[in-house]
Specification:
Oligomer: single chain
Largest sheet: 6 strands, parallel
Number of strands: 6
Helix content: 55-70%
Structural class: mainly alpha
Length: 447
């Protein structure tokens, strides 16, 4: 292995630094934070959709990340799959909050399938994600594959229903890690919730029993003793009594001493793998002087870049503050004017309300007077109605008399008409007789 030459000064080190984007620079400032929140657009204007690989790689390579808050990020499409891939490769994160992301309406299967490969996350928040029964099937597959999650929050997913809860319940047969599951507001039914709670209680009891009653395996115990990371109760008692310094010596021994004090031949196969991995890690961490100076030069250059970026950000922040102050003053004046206008409107409305109250009282008084008149009129109408009934009955009696008279007059009229016919006939007969008599007289006179 060739060792690069050591430069005489950091400035002489040859640096070939790749040009980074503004998004990468922004993320690099979060590389040492244990608790990071990007909730509800917390990327501060950075375009995640254009650089999903950068964000996923940052999550995957973050060595100090313990909790990640991604509430309301609205991640979709290719970015969602790459995010899940980055999370699957991270081995430090323990809590992931992925609420308010409409996961049930996106590629939830790929997301949960890749996330199942993560073994460090023990708390997973997925409430209010429009998860339905098919999502419940995908969650059940996640539970069968994942062994790290112990707290799973699925609250406020009303579309999950009893069918989705049934898939989750069936998955508990192959899952022994989850002992806290929240399903409030999922419409799972009391019976299904009781069965899931029973499964969680069993897992909780099993985990507690295992932690209390199962000591580390012998091989791990020997390895931990040799590395000075574990001491048995007998060794601790021996060290307290002063009967031997072996336990104290083992406690003082660090992992860095393994390379010198222990060889691979002294260890079991599993211990050898553990120690070799640790040695490899330390070899990578111990850089030679030339590499150190080269990294030091790069670090100084990055400090210059960061300082320039900080100056730009500071200038931009001051401009934003000035602009925001001006805008705030204008908005404040506008709001004050609106308040004054509203107060004037309220005063006018109050006056109108008083006038309306007076009119209402007058209308009520008029209504009472009308009610009194109504009662008087109803009494008068009742009295007139009684009089009218009496008059009607009297008129009916008179009508009957008139009809009787009419009938009598009709009979008399028919008799008179018959007499009139007889008189007419008699008159005609008499006229004929007179005419003959006159003719006879005329004949007599003529002779």
């Amino acid at each position: 292995m060739l060792t690069p030459s050591t430069p005489s000064s950091p400035s002489q080190a040859k640096v070939n630094k790749r040009q980074t984007t503004e998004f990468e620079d922004w993320l690099s400032g979060q590389s040492y934070a244990a608790h990071v929140s990007f909730s509800f657009g917390g990327l501060e204007g950075q375009n995640l959709e254009q650089e999903p690989d950068t964000f996923a790689n940052w999550i995957r390579d973050h060595l100090f990340l313990e909790s990640l808050d991604l509430r309301g990020m609205g991640i979709d499409g290719e970015a969602l799959g790459k995010l899940a891939k980055g999370l699957s490769g991270n081995r430090s994160i323990s809590c992931l909050n992925f609420t308010h992301n409409d996961l049930g309406r996106k590629n939830y299967k790929e997301f949960l399938h890749k996330l199942a490969d993560n073994v460090s996350i023990w708390r997973l928040e997925l409430q209010q994600n429009h998860l339905n029964a098919e999502c419940g099937r995908a969650i059940a597959d996640f539970m069968r594959e994942n062994v790290g999650v112990t707290h799973l929050n699925l609250s406020n997913n009303p579309e999950l229903g009893e069918e989705g809860a049934r898939h989750i319940l069936e998955a508990f047969a192959e899952n022994g890690s989850i002992y806290v599951m929240k399903l409030a507001g999922c419409n799972c039914g009391e019976l299904m919730l009781e069965k899931i709670n029973e499964r969680c209680r069993r897992n909780r009891a099993a985990v507690a029993y295992k932690m209390e009653n199962e000591p580390p395996p012998e091989a791990e115990k020997k390895t931990m003793n040799r590395l000075g990371t574990w001491t048995s109760a007998e060794e601790e008692d021996l060290d307290e009594e002063g009967g031997g310094g072996k336990a104290k010596e083992k406690q003082k021994r660090s992992i860095g001493d393994v390379k010198v004090g222990i060889s691979a031949a002294d260890l079991l196969p599993k211990e050898t793998i553990f120690v070799l991995v640790d040695q490899k890690k330390r070899e990578q961490e111990r850089l030679d002087d030339a590499t150190f100076y080269e990294f030091l030069a790069e670090y100084l250059d990055s400090l210059e870049v960061d300082r320039a970026k900080f100056d730009r950000d500071e200038k931009r922040a001051l401009e934003n503050i000035e602009r925001d102050s001006t805008a705030f003053t204008a908005r404040e004046k506008e709001h004050v004017q609106k308040i004054k206008d509203l107060e004037g409107g309220i005063f006018e409305i109050s006056k109108d309300m008083l006038v309306c109250r007076k009119r209402l009282e007058e209308k009520k008084r008029e209504e009472i007077q009308l009610q009194d008149k109504k009662y008087i009129l109803e009494g008068m109408i009742g009295a007139e109605e009684e009089q009218f009934v009496e008059q009607l009955e009297q008129m009916e009696f008179e009508l009957k008399d008139v009809e009787a008279d009419k009938k009598m007059f009709g009979t008399q009229t028919s008799v008179v008409l018959k007499d009139l016919d007889m008189i007419k006939k008699e008159n005609k007969r008499l006229r004929s007789h007179i005419r003959k008599f006159q003719e006879s007289i005329a004949e007599i006179v003529a002779t």
